[in-house]
Amino acid sequence: MVANHNYFTKVMTLKLVFTVYFYGCLLIAQDYQLRYSNIPIGQGTIQADSIRLINSVGGILSQDIVSDSFIVGSGFLKGAQNAFAEPPVISEFLIPSLINSEDNNSVISAVITDLNGIATATLEVQAGGSAQPLNLSMPLSSGSIYRLTIPESIVSINNFRARVVGVDNMGLSTTSEYKTAAIKFSDSELSMSAGFSYYPNGISPGEWKLISWPGDPANKILAESDLDDGHVFYTLNMFTKKYVIADSIKLGNSYWFRHEYDSDTLMFSEDTSIAIALENYIINLEKGWNMIGSPFAFPVRFEIDSTVESPWYYGTISLVKGWSQEESFLKPWKGYAVYASEESDITLLPFSNSITSSNRLADDGWMIGLKIESKNFIHNVTKLGRRNSALEGKDRYDIPAPPDIENNISILLDLNGTTSFRYSKDIRGMNEFNGVWNIRIEMNGEKEPLDITGYLEKQRPEGLAISLVDIQKRTVIDNFIIDKSKVTKLGDRVYDLKLVAGNQGYVLEKTQEIINNIPIDYSLSQNYPNPFNPITRLDFSLPKRSQVTFVIYNILGQEVATLINKELDYGYHKVRWNGTDFYGKQVSSGVYFAKMITSDFTKSKKMLLLK
Fold it and tell me: Where is average pLDDT lowest: 116-120, 479-483, 592-596?
């Protein structure tokens, strides 16, 4: 009985200490509140039969507490004090994995506990495309469970993410991680006319546009049609690198689209669709060109590394055609072309505070962008320059032009003469300071004057001079980065330029050398030797790139052989004839005529073959 009595005394003493301590922390008396944080721990003991608290606000609990052989010391009280100083615990936070926009009973719940009691529970909601959060109070449902029926106001095609903030009676708070869910919509709420759409007025007939779907449509089948009076979708075949007719929608992809319907515009909408959860979305990229689109219904930033080029987009909202480059956001319904020098990925960020979308290492060097514009076209993706990690020859920084869906004006580079003109980016190493970049404008039938401008994307290195040589005009533009150059010679299929960069002396000497090597006029010299047997040579000059045909005729005016039938660059050329006909047989002695034909020049020379 004595042992039981002692045990009972110890338990009651412990309970009394906790009770007095707990209620002392919450007690409101004489116009002040006793808080555990104001009770420092002292030294000494108090017997169980004479327990007393002498604390007022700022008072001192100066003694340990003892019950017979059971001691509640200052360390115990300090542990209790620390327990009450802990913020709330959010042990469970639940959001449905799929929210139906037509269901008004979807609930978000959280379990929040704290020894001090919970003062407020708040659901902090951030809508897609919005920087400002919306705070919603979460009512206490039962015990420590707080529930909130999802209000219709936050269920939109932009979706939302949310987190719980719990605050206890001592003002301490805890914030959970963000959570998000997919939302199912019906009634054509996913529409090209809604929200942040890049095509809010739809798509006009007869125009090629790159489009994508900012959501996951329930019906992914693309209707087939005859383009003559209907529509067509194309996608890029990653194996053949050619466009093929698309038959279904894949999230994160983009598609070429064109229609010939009589209506002014065509508006896309989906009967049923899902707004995907607002989590970082990764699009895997194959080596080469990829056609991508954002699955979010609001503009999002993106992250790429140095193996991936910033996305390109095609045309403008108006009827202007051509490629430009996106630097910051991917927009809903808009399609993009992305080049990867190796297998990689691009990460779309529905929420990001970053200033730039490129995740690239700093690299010394310089880079110039080239842009051409006309009444109907734009091309603003060609880049040239130098950087430390690049090579003088072809490497991952040299980007080929994407396959076009239709003829456009474009600016192309030939990698310092090592390839044909089919590159949009020519970045070389820093081992050389001086250099020449060959530039070709593919006119593709454009009849309107073009403006070509250059702009520095990085600070110009000290001592770097830049000049542009206009081959057709035989002129040098020394302030090319400041002034526009107008291309006014219309009707040519191509227009050649050269950009010379380096120290001032090199640029002056090289530009003059280039000018001196540009013929002033077309010319065709007399063959040499003449008479000949069986080989002779003719020299000719072209002041600009031209389609050249060189034909040999006999005295009767009959074609004997065709020596040249192709485009040639401007400059000085030569051609030889070995006295054979179309079939490789030697022709007989006699008089023959060599005729040179271009779009702007025709001339013949009389030759004598003697055996």
Answer: 479-483
The predicted structure's pLDDT at residue 45: 39
Q: How many domains does one find in the chain?
A: 5
Which of 499, 516, 533 is a domain's end point?
516
Hey, CA dihedral for 484, 485, 490, 495, is it positive or negative?
A: negative
| Longest CA span, the chain | 145
Q: Are 472 and 384 in contact (CB under 8 A)?
A: no
Rg (CA), the chain: 39
For 556, phi then psi, to 5°, come to -90, 0
- Quick one: CA torsion of 324, 325, 329, 334, rounded to 10 degrees? 40
483-524 per-position pLDDT tens digit: 666 666 555 678 899 999 999 999 999 999 999 999 999 999
Length of the chain counted residue by residue: 611
Q: Are 152 and 209 found together in one domain?
A: no
217 lies in the same domain as 272: yes
pLDDT for the residue 536: 97
How far is the C-alpha of 285 from the C-alpha of 291, rounded, in Å? 9
Question: Which residues are CB-contacts of 14 (< 8 A; sequence separation ≥ 6)?
Answer: 67, 70, 72
Rounded Cα distance between 150 and 259, Å, is 41
Q: Which among 266, 258, 378 has a CA at the least distance from the CA of 314?
A: 378
Residue span of the structural domain in which 552 resides:
523-609
Report if residue 359 sits inside a domain: no
Smallest Cα–Cα separation from 423: which of 457, 387, 381?
Answer: 381
Whether 474 and 418 map to the same domain: the answer is yes
* Letter string b/e over residues 166-187, b meaning 16 or more CB atoms within 10 A of that residue's CB: bbbebebebebebbbbbbbbee
502 shares its domain with 433? yes
98 & 164 share domain: yes
The SS3 assignment for 433 reads: coil
Whether 267 and 257 have beta carbons less than 8 Å apart is answered as no
* 196 and 310, same domain (yes or no): yes
Are residue 208 and residue 266 in the same domain, yes or no? yes
Consecutive H or E run containing 344:
strand 344-349
pTM over 0.70: yes
Q: How many helices (H) and strands (E) does the chain have?
A: 3, 50
Domain contains 216 = yes
pLDDT in tens, 553-597: 999 999 999 999 998 989 999 999 999 999 999 999 999 999 999
Same domain, 569 and 555: yes
Omega before 534 within 30 of 0, i.e. cis: yes
Which CATH number does the domain housing residue 557 bear? 2.60.40.4070
Give CA–CA dist 211/225, Å, rounded: 17
Q: Do the beta carbons of residue 234 and residue 244 sit within 8 Å? A: yes
Q: Please, what is the Cα angle at 521 between 519 and 524, to 5 degrees?
A: 95
Give pLDDT, residue 84: 74
Q: Mapping DSSP to helix (H, G, I), strand (E, B) and coil, where does residue 416 land?
A: coil
Decide: residue 417, CB within 10 A, 0-12 exposed, 13-18 middle, 19+ buried. Answer: exposed
